[in-house]
Structures are given as C-alpha cells and as structure tokens.
Amino acid sequence: MNKIVSKLLLLIFLGCGVNITAQEEAPSLIRVGIYHNPPKVFINEQGKADGIFIDILDCILKDENLQVKYVPGRWEELTEMLSRGKIDVLPDVAFSKERDSLFTFNSLPVLNSWLEAYTRKDNRIYTLAGLENKKIGVLNGSVQEDFFRGYIKENLDLKYEIKAYPGYPQSVRALKSGEIEVLIASRFFYFSKFSEKMISPTGIIFRPSELYFAFPKQVDPVLTEIFDRKLAQLKNDPHSEYYGILHSWFDPVLRTGIPPYVLWLLVTIIILLLIIIAFTLLLRYQVKLKTRALWQKNRQLTLAKEKAEENERLKTIFLQNMSHEIRTPMNGIIGFLNLLKEPDLDSDSRQKYIDIVNKSGKRLLATINNIIEISKIDSRQIAVHYSEVDIFEVTDFYFHFFHQQAEEKKLQLKLSVNLGEEDSPVITDKFILDNILTNLLNNAIKFTTKGFIEFGVYREEEMLVFYVKDTGVGIPEERQEAIFERFVQANLNITRPHEGSGLGLAIVKAYVEVLKGKLWLESHPGKGTTFFFSIPFIPAKKEDFPIDSDKEMPEVSGEKIKMLIAEDDNISYLFIQQLLNKPEITLLRAKDGKQVIDLAKENPDLSLILMDIKMPVLNGIDATKKIREFNPLVPIIAQSAYSSPGDQEKAFEAGCNDYITKPISKKRLLSLIHKFSGSFI
Fold first, then answer.
1. Rounded CA separation 34/71 (Å)
2. Those residues with Cβ within 8 angstroms of residue 234's Cβ, 6 or more apart along the chain or in another chain
3. What is the C-alpha separation between 352 and 350, in angstroms, rounded?
4. Is the separation of the CB atoms in 608 and 676 below 8 Å?
5. Is-cis flag, bond preceding 208, omega within 30?
6. Residue range(s) of every CATH 3.40.50.2300 domain in the chain
7. pTM to 2 decimals?
8. Is the pLDDT of residue 293 over 90?
9. What is the three-class DSSP state of 75?
10. Which band of pLDDT confidence, cut at 50, 70 and 90, is reported for residue 105?
11. CATH class of the 387-544 domain in this structure
12. How far apart are CA 573 and CA 615, in angstroms?
C-alpha cells in the first residue's frame, strides 16, 4: 500500500514539474509597430511585415523565447501608441532630444541616414542655392518637414514653398507631374521601388542621423539588453547576417534571384551532359578535366566576389569612422567659433571656447595625419632612413613632453632606462621610433584615469626592448588581437568615453614591422596594460656619422631682426605675421620662389628666411639651392604641411638649416628664431 501511495505522489510531483516548466517556457509576446517607409519598414504585397529593420529584428530575436505581433499603422498613430505602452517596439526611429524624453532607445545605432534632395533628370539642381523659389515636397509629419519648416527657414536665407504628402507614392506623382520641383527624402528612398529612372539624386544632403529601435519609457530592461547584445554581436562580425541583409537590400541583383530561364538552361545543360557521358565513355577523362577546370574557375569567381564584398565593408567602415572623426571636431570648431562672435561674451567663456576650438583642431589634425600615414603604409611608401639616435635623449624628451599631459589627469609619469652608456647611441629611423612612442604614450594617457604611466627601454641580447605600462582599463583577452586592426578599439560600446579613429595601433604595428621588430602586449581588465616592442640593436660608431665641424652658423644681432617669409597662401602669411607682430621684427614677403631669390639678393642683411616648400613658379627646395649659390650663411628654415623624413632630408640637402611643419607652433617658431638669431622674442 505504501509503495502505491509513493508512486502516486511521485507522479503528481512530476506532473506539477512538467506544468511549471511549460509555464516557464511559454514564449512572451512583443508588439512591433509597422508603418510604410520602404525599404526600411513596410507591408509587402503579401500583406506581411518587410524591410531592412524587419530582417534585422528577426536576426536579433532568433533563438530568443519571444513571439512577435506586428501592429500596422501610420507614423503618428504608432508613436502615440509607443508613448502609452500600447506597442513594445517601433523600428526605424531617428534619435532626437525630444524623442529621447518620450522613448527609450537601444544603445547601438542600427543604420546611419541623412536627408537628400531628389529632382527629375530634366530639372537638375546642383547646389543649395538651387532650392531658391522652388516647390519642395516632404512627407507629412516627418523629420524632413520639421527640418525644412524650422531649421532651414531660421538659419538659411532661402525662399521656398513646402508641400506635405501622406506617403512616397503621392509625393513621387507630384514630382513627375511638376506639382513640386524637389522631393526631400531619406537616403534609403534611392533603394525603394519608388525611385524611378526619371528621378535622380542631387548630392545635396542634410541632417545626418542615426536610426534606432525605440521602446516605451517604462520598457523592461531585459528586452533592451537583448537588442543591444545581439546587435553588437551582429555588427562586429563581418560575416554575420547583418551585413548579408544590407547587401541583399542595397544590391538589386541579390534580391531578384536567379531568373527561371537560367534554371531551365542549367537543367538542359545537365541533361545534355548526362547523354554525352552515357554515349561517349571514351571521353570521360576529358570531361573530368573540363569539369575540374570549370570548378576552379567558379572558385576563383567566388573568392573574387568575397574579396569585393570585404572591400566594400572596409570602405563603409572607413567612411563611417572618418566621417565621425572629421565631423566631430569640425562641429566643435565651427560651433564655438560662432559662439565667439557673441558681443556680450565674458572673458572666461571666450577663453574656454578658444581652448575647445584649439583641442578640436588638434584632434582633427591627428586624424588627418593618421589617414596620411596609413595611406603610406598601404601604398608601401614607407622607407627606412637610418641615422644615429641617442636613446637617452629620445626617452628624456618624451618624459618631459608628456609630463604636463599626465599631470593634468593627476597621473604619475615614470621613466626607466636600463642601458649602459655604450648602448645608448644606436642606428635606427628616428622618425618612425618617435611615431611609435608617441602613439603608445598617447594611448596610455587616454585610457588611464588614475595611477601611473611607466615607459622605458632595456637591452635583450641583440634587440632593444621598449615598453609602455599603464594602470588603465585594460583589454579583454578576446580583444587583444583585434585592437591592432584598423578602426578598432577594445571597447565596442557606442557610449565609450574615448574618441579616436582606431588607426594608432595599426600604424604602430606597421612601423615596428618595417623596423624588423616585434610588437606584443600583456593586459588584465581593470588592472592595466603593458605594450612591448623590440627593434634590432645596431650600435652607432662615431666614424659612421662624421660631423662637419668647419661649418659655422652666423651670429646675428639680437636687437633688430629682418625676416623674409616665403608663403603664397594669404591666410598662412597673416597667421605668421600675427605671431611675429613686434617692433623689433621687420617682415618681407615673397609669394613665389622667384620673388624669394630676388628679395634675398636685394637684402643681404637678412637675419632669417622662412621658406615654404610648396610654392608657384619655383618650389622652396630649388629656391634654397639658388640662394645658397650667393648667400651660404643666411639661416633658412623650411616650412611645409608634409612631415615625412624624406621631405626633411631633401630640405637639408638643399641647404636648409632646420625644418618646421604646419600648423606652425608659436613656441617652436620663436625657439628657432632664437636659435639662429640669438634674439629672444
């Protein structure tokens, strides 16, 4: 009897367990709003939800225990439903401050977009001024309408008439009929079925924006966490379904599929091959060879296609990163320069705005320099220029150079040089070594908020080993190889606090390899990172680099200075003129190389010549050579926007005494004037 009762209790317990499990595994329902905005979101001809966002949503929710119910409606209806929690997700929502106060957005943007002007091909416009007195069509209640009724009218001196339409079909008909002359639509309009042959984009774009999934303000954080996690995985995997979806929507060939006649043709060919094989056994070997050749050719075509897709992906990443890294500081420069025009601006705010403009300019210059360097690496234009380098002098320079920057962040900067006196002078490329150390030290200070930065060098057999150690955020083990790729940082979150193009470590890696060295790192998240790089130890001998002791620099009086500025660009000259606007300095200007030579002959008492390398009529290198024929003593400082060691060597070979790069640093220029004239300015 006890055994029977025990079995019954066990069955009841198991039954309850099954019910509980079933209840726990019951899928949750999320309601997704759908409005008509192809190709991003729309209802297709079969009455089903379709579009780029819908395909991406399917990838995000795959393997999640969630059921989706699509709720169609107009944009105004759906945004109202989302604010009241009647739907759970609304795709394709551009971020704005107003919407951020009403909704919750996922962290990572799904797509980037902008507005573009479209016209008929027989009525093209090419500039923003071409919108004057035009009839412009927009979608009713859209960001296009808000932007043109608000910002454009308030900020641009343009007159135009706005006409709003409920959807693209009506606005396209109006454009074709001449009811409107310009249609303002998102960039995705070009890929929709409404973009006909007679309609053409103008290249005039407005209001770049990022598109997200929007949720109610009181959304369950578990749901947004699913979207953020899955979207980050998809976007960071170059072979994920995310990029396949984009290619399928933006490439009409991929969406149309294989035409039926091609399939019939393939079937016919296969049947003919089978007949030929059946009746010509003697030719079997030749058929195998032919088939193998065709397979190899097909494989080559497949590899070529994959390479083309990879190049397209890299181009997209490059444009997105460079757009961000160039637009961000430019926005700061333009925005705060406009604020500086305010007549009632106090002195503290003015100085603050000037500092912001200066920092933004330096960031923009760093980005441009990185692009130039990575372009040189790609085109294999990096040449190693060996010279004698004093390691003690180099490390001491960078210790003092970065000391103030470290102090501003309340970090301790340490230097450790474990070399003997005989090991310090070595043969290497100083320009490349400087770039490697500058990038690594900049990164260490950028990603460290407390603690210390230590860098140093020691000898290990036939190699010199440099290291830069920090107590910063550290790098996860799974990201340690990826950070040396281009446009990649260790932190994948879009809210990461550190700006940057993601090119620095890629440049460092290429430079170390050019010097036939090795680059590696040790890192622990939350504890810090140490970067190591080694270069061959080639001891310098004094006889390898003889010093010309016969050449003496002229002594010029420090009381009065007469300088010849060779500069064809008016703005650059005005900048130098302001830097040297002192009564004891007399400035002469030459706008081309021939004028430089003539003024140098007419003024033998010149204290200094600031020579621009790139000038009309005669470049600065050739002009320097001509001047040295009749005046071998006047100090000549080359100035150029270029910064490669090859350009510097050409300047020195032509007879220049020193070299300064644009944008010109006031401190550096005054230091050179003092060096060659003996005067303090």
1. 6
2. 56, 59, 60, 240, 241, 242
3. 5
4. yes
5. no
6. 561-677
7. 0.37
8. no
9. helix
10. very high
11. alpha beta
12. 13
